[in-house]
Amino acid sequence: MRAHQLDVLVLEARDRVGGRTLTKTLGDGKFWVDLGGSYVGPTQDCVLNLIDELKLETYLVDDTKDIGYLKSSFKLRQGNQVSWVERRARFKPDKDPPFGNIFHWIDYVHLVKLIDAYGAQIPSESPWLAPKAEEWDSKSFKQFVDESAWTRRVRDYFNHIFVTIDICCDANEVSMLWFLWYVKQCGGYGRAISTTNGGQERKILNGSQQLSERLSQLLGEGAVLLNKPVFKLDQTDKAFALVTTTDGSKFKAKYVICAISPHLLLKIHHEPALPREKNLLAQRSPMGQVAKVILYYKRAFWKEHGFSGCFLIDSYSRGRSLDPVILSLDETKPDGSHPAIIGFVGARGWFEMRNLPESEVGCRVAESYARVTGLREFLNFERVERADWTGEQYSGGCYTSTHPVNTLFKYGASLREPFGRIHYAGTETATKWSGYMDGAISAGKRAARELLYLEQRLTNADDVWREEPASKSVPPRPFEYPVWHEYAPSWKCLLGLAHSLLAAGLLTFVVYRRLAIR
Amino acid sequence: MRAHQLDVLVLEARDRVGGRTLTKTLGDGKFWVDLGGSYVGPTQDCVLNLIDELKLETYLVDDTKDIGYLKSSFKLRQGNQVSWVERRARFKPDKDPPFGNIFHWIDYVHLVKLIDAYGAQIPSESPWLAPKAEEWDSKSFKQFVDESAWTRRVRDYFNHIFVTIDICCDANEVSMLWFLWYVKQCGGYGRAISTTNGGQERKILNGSQQLSERLSQLLGEGAVLLNKPVFKLDQTDKAFALVTTTDGSKFKAKYVICAISPHLLLKIHHEPALPREKNLLAQRSPMGQVAKVILYYKRAFWKEHGFSGCFLIDSYSRGRSLDPVILSLDETKPDGSHPAIIGFVGARGWFEMRNLPESEVGCRVAESYARVTGLREFLNFERVERADWTGEQYSGGCYTSTHPVNTLFKYGASLREPFGRIHYAGTETATKWSGYMDGAISAGKRAARELLYLEQRLTNADDVWREEPASKSVPPRPFEYPVWHEYAPSWKCLLGLAHSLLAAGLLTFVVYRRLAIR
Question: Any idea which fold A97-193 has?
Fold first, then answer.
């Protein structure tokens, strides 16, 4: 905007820039930790290019060793006593989770393919125009999984593990259409969940909040005002929008870009009132519920045992769950210092632990790690950090907004629709990696170009949606599933095969008997 | 409060008192119409007593004649052409809707009984403590209906007609626990939907907004300030709460009562921030979507044909719907003047008609009435009034807040929990007739008594939840279902009977054959 000689003023509600990214320095400023958005990966060209532009560096999250896998199920014993049965395993990062038997694996691959195939039918920019948008938006993602998966193990995996890792809520809380869109616009199932060549491949050295801090510095003194929550947007005067912050400051603006989550639109009193669809959408955009728990250790002893620090803990069983953390990742610094593991506590796990003191949460998480690896050393952590985003007034949760049934199809089209002089950014309005830092940046750029077009600094309306050039430092690589995914039969195919075998068997038997009789 | 020598100041966001009640005078002030909350009935003792106290009068909604019933279903013809098949009927108000055949009726009665029986297991004050609260809150009401009803007709009736009439949204949008609670705290299914001896028995002569207007007058000059939306509640000073309105006025208060819908809590910037549970609840409390459409006629000609003006239009069929109005009621004034019919356009109907001009909406609604009665005179209405509550910033929809799955069980307990000096009222916090005017009044009284108790004007904590004395002018009468409901068999019973008959038949056959052989 500056390059186009436009005056920009940023009003930030919080006492810091960064939004849902937050880098905290620990141990007398000796090291840092990202308590909010943190990961970047290939195809996230907006954030990668910005990292280059700001001369920041990324480093690879350790994904070279095994992933620890734990599956616990409970059994009901006599007298309503419950006992848990555990199966511990480890697998290579480029392999599928070791579900147990071939039928689970077939079911898993079938669902992965289905999620991506359905996603291909959903336009990134306008999911409400998908051929089956209305039908898919009337079902929860859980209903889709329950209808599509044949085995309980795989149903549990997608409903409780995948959804909770990906958006920090339960599968019955989000619409099938919205969540399929969400996965699709991240590049599909594999890209979304992977570390290497996926959304969690890298972290930014010295923390992700630097992005906002450096941008803020670039804007210069006085261009970013902190502690200025906007509570009123008044467009009754035809000549400008009048923006008022909670301390009573008033600002006249030719344009306003609201870069906030949809539900935070309700924090602002609008004059005239928000259009109906936007108001109804804002009421139907709850944030995910997540806390990050980081445990620090003296040594990264798990690496000596062949673990990267990535654990997949699937202890959901018939409505109960034993472990708060579902996924963890290595959080050791790239120079090997400050060995740590970061765990994601979402949805049900978050709910159960929300009122526990930090130290107790640390103990419970450490126990999970000990169970998944069999390494009792995990219990002796040196320090625990927890960040719970649900209590934060101007976030209301993390990572992103979700939508329940009947929302995206009915009101989704209003999401990016400008309202008078007000334009909309924020990661939720992105059409690629929405919900991630990359989406926040691309949405901001798109909203800025909307204004540039209105100001005739852009001549071509198509330029508003200009594609970001590919990152040079982390060039986009196509994501490929293991080749055997290609050949995994679907259930229908298996059933057909079974029928054919049965028929062939019967025929053989009949022919044999006939011959025998003769 | 005044009686207890406490100073009260009411800050009203709108330019009028009344909240979700609104009485408009039409035709040069000659007559009035309620565009918002309007109906009262037996057991709503709070509102009935207030009506008496304020020397207002109620009158009966005409329920003496037949209810018109229309069932349309569509058939797919060759070449994807759709044609609608209609069945028109009429029935007495004390009878069940004429679903068509005995199996539908059995299914209907079974579900009515189930809704009330499950409701009996849910405590009105704390639905989250119901024995199956967690399980019921994880399902949508639609899932409950689809699992419990055996016939498509009855599934459609409960999912699309009953839910839309009762809470103006779709059955898949609300949790089973929440909606069963909602029906229960209105006194059960029959009480909630009935006109005579139900929630729609009466209206207030000259309009319901008078309640708030008279109360406001009683408080006296200066005690109610209009156009004062509160945007900030600051409790950082230990001695008082600082309340700031959008025009910059500041008020110090010893206590604050927030009498707003849960989602409107987000309109207020809190210092310190709202507790997590309240914030998460506010994000998960969307309002219903409804418009009221009133058609005025020269004569109440429908009464000459034996109709009260109540029509039940069930034109939902396989995802499509022909008629915007699902339920209508007679809106003729008690002296017979201004013949009119009021139609409720909710959820899907609202969505489809939201952008049509008023006159076109009137025509479509009139056509529905003509089809349900066969009276073409309905097309010649004199005037149409439409009130759409979704566009209203400080309502965001009507009649009340709803809750999707996983909300009431997890966060419901925070609904009425005081936060520092802030206490909570509003119809959504009521435990009887929540969602109605009665609930708004009882919740206000309860919140006021919370403060009186803290101020030691009430000595007994139990008095906070003091029960309202029964209304003398409209004494509560028990609600009774038709006697034959008692004897309607359930599906299980019918299946058992069929099995028994089959077994008996087989036995007879075998015995007969044996005897015959001898």
Answer: Guanine Nucleotide Dissociation Inhibitor; domain 1 (1.10.405)
